[in-house]
Every structure is written in C-alpha cells, then in structure tokens.
Q: What sequence folds into this?
C-alpha cells in the first residue's frame, strides 16, 4: 500500500473513532447548525492535519492520545470563540483571499512609542484611517521580563499584556474597535522560545521533570558540543554558542538567541498542543493576522544547522490546518530572514499565506545606493511570483536593522562580488562611503570581516537628514523623491504594503537613545523613537517637508486603492533597456498599468521603440503626477521619478 493511500485510510479511521468522543463532550452545548459547520471544516482539514502530526509524532507509543488531546483543545477553543468572530470566520471563508485586495494597506508600530498604551492607541485610530490603513501590526505587547527582553520577544505570558501597555481587556476592546473601523489586527507569535520567566520555565527551574521536557535541556556538554559543530551562532558577541548553563538545575539549556530565551522542544507533542492553545487564544481576542516569529528555528536535528528543517514546515502546516478548523478568519505571516530561496519555502495556502519580503527591502536600498536596478530586477524576476492564494508583505524598513539578504548567486551572475557588495552597502548607509547621501549606523558589525547590518530611519537613510543639515534644497528634494519612490514600489508591485509609522512624516534618526542604559549598544533604537507630534501637525502643510512626504504617500495609497489593476493582480517585471530604471506591469482582467522608477540622480531616457514593444501607446496618463505623458521618440524620467502609466480612460 502506498504511503498516501495508507495515510488517507488511517486518517479516515482515526477521525471516525475520535468523533464520538468529541461529540459527547461538545455537541450538546452548541447550536446544531453551528456544530455541523465545525464538523465540515474538521472533516475537510483533518486528513492533512493527521498527515502532519503523524510525521512529527507517529512513532510515539501514545500518538493517538496526543492526537485526541490536540483535537479536543482546538474544539474547546472554537467552542468559546466569540460569536462576532465566528461571524468573521464565515465572512473570510466566503472570501478566503481577502488579503490579496488592493484595498489593503498596512502599518506597524510600537504601542508605547506611537500612542503610549492600548487605550491611547484607540484614540489614534482616526490617524490610521486618514492615511488609508486597514491592517495594523503591533510590535510585541505581551508580558515580558523587566530589563532584558529582546524588545518584547522574550515572552513571559502569551495571555497577559505588558502592564505598561494595558490589559488583555484593553487589547480586546482595541481589536473590536479596529474591526469596526475595517482594520485587521496583526500580532507577533513568538513560538520558538519563551522567556526564562514564563511559568513553564519557572516550573522547569524548580525541578519539575514534566516542564523540563518543554525545553531542550542537557546534563552535560556532550550533546551541546555535538550540536554546535554544525550550528551558526546568532549573537556571538553576546554569548558564544547556542546553549546556556543554569547551575540551579545543573543543566545546559538550548538558547538560540539570548540566554534568557529558552527554545521550546517541539519533539514533545504536549508543547505543540500548549502552543496551539496559546495561538487560538489570541485568535479569540480578535487577532486576524499572526506573524510567526523565527520560523526557521523551531526544529533541531543533530548534524544540521537546525534551520529550515522539513519538520519546521510540518509544524506550521499542522498549526495552519488547526486554525482553518477552529478560527478560519486568521491567517499566518512568516518571518524568515534567511536566504531568499528559503523564505519562499514557507509560503503556501497550507503553511503561511503571507510572508515578509526581506529581499525586496534589501534590493530597494541596494538600487538607491548603486543607482543600478539590475540586481533588483534579476532577484524579483526569479523570486517574486508566489503560489496562488498567497501574498508578500512588502516594506522599506521595519523595527529591526536592514540586512543585505540578496542571493550570492544572483550577484555573481551580474559580476558582483557578494561579500564586497555587502560591505559597500554597509559603508554607504553608515556614511563611510564618499558621496553617500545616507546617515545610518552599523548593527552587529564584525570588524574582522567588515560584515554589518544597518540601522536608521527611512528618511535619514534616504538623505533627508544630510540635506536638512546642509540646508541643501536639491538634496532635500531628492530625499523626498527617494522616500516616495521606494514606498511607491511597495504600494504597487503586488502584495500588502507595510509602512513603519513615522516614515510617512519623514522622522529622522534619534541619537539620544544612547542616554538610556538599556539601549546602549543597540543601534536599532536609532529608528525606534516616539511618534513626532510636531511633524505630524505639519502633514497637511505642503510647504513643509513632512507635508510633502505625507501627501505624496497619501496620493500613492489612493492610486493603489482606487485602481483595479492592483487587485489580486499579476506582476511582470520587465527590462526597460535602462539599468537605472526599474519597470513592471500590474495586470488584472482588462486593467493594466506600467510602473517606472528611476533610481538615479540623473534624468533617464527610455526609447519609444522599446516602450512600444512593451505594449505602450504614444500617449499614457501618469496617475502619480496626474498628467498626460506623450513619448514619440523617448520617455524622459527626472531624477528619482516614479510613474504609474495607464492608458487614457482607464
């Protein structure tokens, strides 16, 4: 019997045996029609759930006990799911690809920096709706240890909010109000590790063997040493290797990131079940998009790098199937800052429907620094297309540093030395390269190799800080154009654009972060600064720099949301015949637009003949500039020009 046939047969038998036990526990407490709808979803998704769980845990003697426990947990979390969210489940089931709509525009922020706390954030919803935002990603809001907590990614409790931000009730009220205003809430789910102050970790440290099995603990260095022969340490400057010794229990604990973040042991099916419950708890609070943090690290295998292993994908696929059963309104977004080819492996309808696009971020900044779009064009031609039903989340920067995550092979095809080119980019964006317009700082710089990532706000990296310092009107103008150009790309190229709040008003680097002891040495705080009320007040004054950026960005958002060429559309990256001008088509039914972006500080020209070959007519309308463009011999693009060309009447 083939494996597929065996799996189908045994999944059918297993569900038939389990259903009476579920019905005995839940059916009488639920409306019959509602229960039938749940059972239909369970029957639809159980075969792939069974397949995933069997591949992970099928060799364990008590596999069917854990299978029943996992189904019971999912059913109970569905049972207590609020009626309003069950209504949203029905709405999303009727429109399963809602996240591919051109209406969707995202923003991300730290709650405390943007609005003080969750109550204050409710008062700022009007600011978001004014900008056209309908997807809000809040940086970690959960309870964390005092002091070191990795910016909120060392979670002490997934069911408690950081008291400085409010309470879980405040989060629910915020999620409700956002939903009423048409805004979907996105939160991080840190599922590779917990803080060492999490209740599970505390019990493990107290000697409870059950909870010690929640983590990866070793009595001596034999296995840690064996693992580390093939591991790449994440933060070697902070602590060598990937293990931390705790003398209280006399064990070595796997800590991939920081010594206070303990990696969970997903070889234990109980851990999978407990994390499923935490995930569905968040879904029941109104979270519609769950960003899965550090997806590449969740499975370990001796003799490997313990990154991007097949089981990591299987774990996410199993979670996906369970969410489709118990809370289908919620979708997953992956965070995998790895090789571009590995990033794409996490993206599918049955795994993560959404994914950050770190390659696009890196290549946009590369094109600005080099004035050369070839690496951008080549990388996107090879990797931008996604499976049906999925979407990129595109951004020009986020809360973290900028890493140069392009493919070495792509660089070599274009006769670039990958290592030397990354060093050039790091030098350029930290103002160490002659003629650079950027003002950033290195993050995790390796002085021996020259490797570094870069911190800084979008405006400072794009040249606005330098232009204002020198009071150079040309530099200021070009900086504004660069900011709008790269945001124009993420808004029109396909997927969900994500704006880091503050960039819409051109906030500059905050060098005062070094005055705070907890922030010293972490240059990422350069761009993690409180919302600038004074700059925001200027956003409607077009004579000001914040006003020019804000209104230009608002115009780009309106173009996206009002043109059907951008909805669930295909993207075709094209060769414009000019290595400084990036171009791509967006096509949806009879709607087509051509986007052109000049990444050079010189006027660039495109031959009319090549434009005709691409299907353009002599006369097109530039939707961004709001004027008709006629190209009889050639089309001219001013420095850092961004054009959205459509046929007249479209």
A:
């Amino acid at each position: 019997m083939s494996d597929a046939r065996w799996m189908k047969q045994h999944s059918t038998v297993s569900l038939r045996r389990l259903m009476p036990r579920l019905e005995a526990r839940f059916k009488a407490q639920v409306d019959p029609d509602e229960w039938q709808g749940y059972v239909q979803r369970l029957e639809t998704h159980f075969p792939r759930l069974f397949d995933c769980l069997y591949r992970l845990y099928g060799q364990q003697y008590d596999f069917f006990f854990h299978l029943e426990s996992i189904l019971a947990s999912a059913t109970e979390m569905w049972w207590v799911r609020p009626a309003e969210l069950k209504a949203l489940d029905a709405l999303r089931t009727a429109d399963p690809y809602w996240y591919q709509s051109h209406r969707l525009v995202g923003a991300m922020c730290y709650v405390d920096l943007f609005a003080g706390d969750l109550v204050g954030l409710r008062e700022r919803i009007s600011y978001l709706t004014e900008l056209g935002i309908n997807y809000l990603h809040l940086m970690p809001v959960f309870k964390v240890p005092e002091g070191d907590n990795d910016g909120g990614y060392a979670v002490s409790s997934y069911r408690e909010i950081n008291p400085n931000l409010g309470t879980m009730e405040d989060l629910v009220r915020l999620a409700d109000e956002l939903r009423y205003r048409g805004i979907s809430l996105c939160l991080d789910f840190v599922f590779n590790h917990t803080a060492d102050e999490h209740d599970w970790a505390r019990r493990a440290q107290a000697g409870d063997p059950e909870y010690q099995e929640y983590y990866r603990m070793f009595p001596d260095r034999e296995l840690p040493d064996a693992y580390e022969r093939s591991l790449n340490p994440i933060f070697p400057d902070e602590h060598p290797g990937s293990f931390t010794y705790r003398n209280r229990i006399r064990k070595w604990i796997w800590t991939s990131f920081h010594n206070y973040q303990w990696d969970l042991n997903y070889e234990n099916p109980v851990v999978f079940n407990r994390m499923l419950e935490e995930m569905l708890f968040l879904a029941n609070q109104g979270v519609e998009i769950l960003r899965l943090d550090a997806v590449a690290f969740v499975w370990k295998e001796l003799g490997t790098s313990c990154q991007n292993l097949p089981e990591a994908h299987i774990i996410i696929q199993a979670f996906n199937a369970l969410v489709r059963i118990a809370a289908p309104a919620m979708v997953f977004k992956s965070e995998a800052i790895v090789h571009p080819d590995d990033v794409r492996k996490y993206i599918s309808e049955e795994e993560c429907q959404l994914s950050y696009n770190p390659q696009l971020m890196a290549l946009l900044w590369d094109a600005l620094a080099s004035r050369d779009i070839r690496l951008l064009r080549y990388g996107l031609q090879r990797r931008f297309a996604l499976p049906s039903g999925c979407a990129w989340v595109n951004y020009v920067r986020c809360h973290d540093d900028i890493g140069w995550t392009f493919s070495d092979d792509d660089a070599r095809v274009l006769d670039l030395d990958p290592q030397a080119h990354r060093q050039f980019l790091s030098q350029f964006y930290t103002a160490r390269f002659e003629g650079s317009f950027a003002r950033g700082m290195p993050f995790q710089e390796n002085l021996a190799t020259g490797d570094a990532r870069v911190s800084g706000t979008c405006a400072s990296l794009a040249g606005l800080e330098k232009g204002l310092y020198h009071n150079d009107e040309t530099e200021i103008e070009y900086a504004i154009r660069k900011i709008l150009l790269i945001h124009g790309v993420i808004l029109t190229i396909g997927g969900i654009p994500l704006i880091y709040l503050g960039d819409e008003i051109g906030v500059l680097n905050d060098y005062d972060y070094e005055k705070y002891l907890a922030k010293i040495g972490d240059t990422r705080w350069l761009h993690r600064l409180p919302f600038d009320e004074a700059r925001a007040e200027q956003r409607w004054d077009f004579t000001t720099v914040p006003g020019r950026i804000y209104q230009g960005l608002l115009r780009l958002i309106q173009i996206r949301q009002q043109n059907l060429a951008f909805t669930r559309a295909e993207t075709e990256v094209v060769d414009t015949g000019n290595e400084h001008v990036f171009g791509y088509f967006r096509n949806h039914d009879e709607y087509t637009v051509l986007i052109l972006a000049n990444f050079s500080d010189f006027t660039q020209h495109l031959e009319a003949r090549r434009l005709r070959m691409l299907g353009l007519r002599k006369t097109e309308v530039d939707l961004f500039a709001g004027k008709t463009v006629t190209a009889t011999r050639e089309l001219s693009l001013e420095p850092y020009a961004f054009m959205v060309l459509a046929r007249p009447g479209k």
Observations:
- The CA atoms of residues 304 and 564 lie 46 Å apart.
- The first helix runs from residue 3 to 26.
- The longest strand covers residues 581-588.
- DSSP finds 24 helices and 25 strands in the chain.
